[in-house]
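User: I'm new to structure prediction. If I give you an amino acid sequence, what do you actually give back? Let's try with this one:
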Amino acid sequence: MSIEKMPPQESRITIGSSKDMETVSELYLTSLPQDVITTTEDKVRLTLMGYLKKTEKKKGWLTPMGLTISLTLTLMMSAFKDWGLTADTWKAVFVIGDIASAAWLVYAVVESFRSVKLDDVIAELKKHSESMIKFVKR
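Assistant: Good question. You get back a string of structure tokens that encode the predicted 3D arrangement of the chain. For your 138 residues, that looks like this:
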């Protein structure tokens, strides 16, 4: 049935919060060129919050890189002296810190490449949409 041949119908679409899920809509949609995603605000909010958290990891390598560069330059340019601890102890502290920050840098770079794509967010919303449609049909 094409859209032109459909008899005019009164649509009852509620925008905003709806307490009665049975009267949300009686509008018939046919031949849409795009997918329609039906979900609730809290599902969208949770999905987008997860997406934002994962996109923040893209720049999480900056801090460990700065720390690694600073500690490496300190090790290269400093002549450690006895001051509270022996010179060898101070050098060991900086070497351990440099190794730890380099390991953190490697981890942060790997995590930045595992970023989530927008298509993943849309797929997550579609998954919620399918479960919402099953709930309304019951």
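You can read the tokens as a compact description of the fold. Here is one thing that stands out. Residues 3 and 33 are 13 Å apart (CA to CA).
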